[in-house]
């Protein structure tokens, strides 16, 4: 070991000596010194090739070796010396990596190489070995020197390399490094100059049919060509010269002959060239004309059984989807079938644009629905998305204006305008002198239903024949009228509950005994009769033990007073009967590898083999007289009930149907009437082969907010029905209708005890004529004396709201849990009522919920983007909700907490968005002083408490960053304009959890209601952190919050979860197979 060490040290000292000698020779160059320089550089080369430590010594800054060698290269005129020095540099940069290459570039090495290349080419023929060394070095330094392309073009080195390629097509030894240099040029956005110089034509002389020889050379040529074709100009030139059919032919040849799949990278490179060509409209047309769809479909189908060929299948799928002819959405207009007249059209936005179009304009598809170039597709060879926690780029949406992040210090409305809202805060002026504190008082008037709103209500059930000759016992089946009879109407039904002590004591089993009894032996009975002279009796079991807040009779009464635009006359069976939560946990569905690709290939197959497609319309709201053939092979569809959402259904194949309905890529819910009859009245997660991808239906610029070339998306899943002649309901999430809310509120009012102050007001009337309930819940004062009344009036206000987005039904289930807890008799609930006055708007968008909207109101707008300037006529619920908050601020009763309940379709768990100046600025490059960022950290207390108490809550998913696109949301406006520090959006997953005791499980209504109750408990614990008497004793807690923030800030490349993961208004995530469903902006995140 010592001998080796001594030898190494000796070599190192020797190379330093040689460098010193070389430096002296450079300082006093003489013709006679050429031999000495040649010998010295040869010795240095030998040492570098044999000793790693020698390489380190030469490259070290202290030795100055790099400067000496480059100086020698610049001064020498001797060919052998030049070759020695170039060989030395090749050795240094090959082993040293990026660090040595960076030093080389910084010392001007690139310019020297290009100068040497140009100079050597002036006296042809150029020395082949010299050209090899120079181009090998240019390949190494190219990606480190971003100005390489400019330098090469200015001094003529680019043309030198191109000429070498042209005249050495058969000399593969020299051709390879020259092509590698061209590949470097093409990758540093130098492809336009290369295209003008004839590089495209040269590349097509090199690539060709299948060959086992020179595959490395071919791969470099294909990579260079693919980079060149990223330029639209080069792509058009290639299409004009007919190169696209040539590439398809070459790909077919390689596919046919590469039977052992040893050249997959070359086949993928050919596809990469085709992919870049099809980025332009001209290329897509040429691809179709060259029968490219069929060629890639057939080759991909043959590749499917081999997993290692997935990169070929994925790239082929991307190309085919991009070239798939854009189809018109099979609708006459994107406007709803049902129209609700507005007092005036919004001044701006998509609704204004849609309704201000001249007559006769097609709003479904543009005249030219494609941009010249499509969006750039990013490619991922795997089928699964990148981890959401991976590195992200800086988000431009984060608010950087400090003034916009500061609360507004003045009231935005005169108090005289707000005085009318005193009516909704009568608790602050009541003296309670006439109250009986021992017994509950009437807090909500009995339901008064307008007689004009009474209308026939139909309850769809399982179709089966009805008559004395084939009537079955109630427990065996559900009997409904014959198909040729008129639907059974509510007024012709008498409702009775099965008395106690019947034969089946199991209440769950008795739920199935919903029967329509048409009488016995044709005997007459009192009351309305059907056409056969028989009264239908709807026998309903008493489900109070399982569903204490559900009453079918009361629900029907609530339905009668609910105003819908289509004037619905049917009631969904699950809504009428009630939802019984499952006792078992449903695991999150694992995605099956390749399912999305399979579905996309089915779409492509429809284009290639159109004769296999039925395309039969089986349901169409636009054409109410749409004939439906009852041949037993077609499903029957219906959505004409509250919250229904289905416009059209088309049978594609015998067992496949397309439906036009809002939805996202999640496992849906199904309610089977047959299962309910058999004792399982549950909404159950269902469906397999679930995926979500961009389809070939063109989206007009009107529908896409002014953007052209966009497409719609397909949600697809497979369901196998278990029963014949069943009625099945499908839902995006557990339904919660407006009528259900009204029923629950009426049932909750009956739970009031003498200790509970409960009041329900109608905040306003919606555009559709429905009332928006406002609840006030707190504890009654102990007596009518001054001290209890004073304590009552001094309680802080907590303001809660939910369901501004109709599709986020889970927010209503969370709100239901909150309301039930607040009305419960537990000591904690009473303590909570004694601590706060709760102002609650449980449904901010009743019209959207009733009419089956996913996100907007009857004005066609997202109400959670109207909080800055709500219009009293177009956005009445938001206008008056904000007015309530403005009144509280004006009277010095700014709420302690504001929380808007929402749902999230793509993130798991429950989490919060809040508002923080500090955390927003920390995500930007804005320089601010510490005093500018002074902020109370109390906004983090409630989320931290929830993370400790609620098993579904995730603190790590919370974000307190304010973004420009969210400045008109409730959370940000209430924080900034009303001055509520603890202003939140609470997001509940629509899917499931990936942490805690619910990890790996889909979320159900029980867990959502539990979350609502846990939120109440967290508010109770929050009390001690906000009490003036105790705040001083909890400084350590705030210090913990500061520590959390500092730790969060210290994480490199930290990004806001809101910024990158939560864009939900339109699926912006890359698809699992990276078929690049455009980077979109849809759904909070959108909240």
TrEMBL record:
Region listing for Disordered, in residue ranges: 356-398, 435-489
Top-level taxonomic group: Eukaryota
Compositional bias segments (type: Acidic residues): 363-388
EC number: 3.4.17.24
Keyword Hydrolase recorded: yes
InterPro entries registered for this protein in UniProt: ARM-like, ARM-type_fold, CBPC1/4, Cytosolic_carboxypeptidase, Peptidase_M14
GO molecular function, one term: metallocarboxypeptidase activity
Any single GO CC term annotated in Swiss-Prot or TrEMBL for this entry: mitochondrion
Active site, renumbered: 987 (proton donor/acceptor)
Recorded catalytic activity of this chain's protein: C-terminal L-alpha-aminoacyl-L-glutamyl-L-glutamyl-[tubulin] + H2O = C-terminal L-alpha-aminoacyl-L-glutamyl-[tubulin] + L-glutamate
Record has Protease as a keyword: yes
Required cofactor names: Zn(2+)
Compartment(s): Cytoplasm, Cytosol; Mitochondrion; Nucleus
Protein name per its UniProtKB record: Cytosolic carboxypeptidase 1
Species this chain originates from: Cyprinus carpio carpio
Source lineage: Eukaryota, Metazoa, Chordata, Craniata, Vertebrata
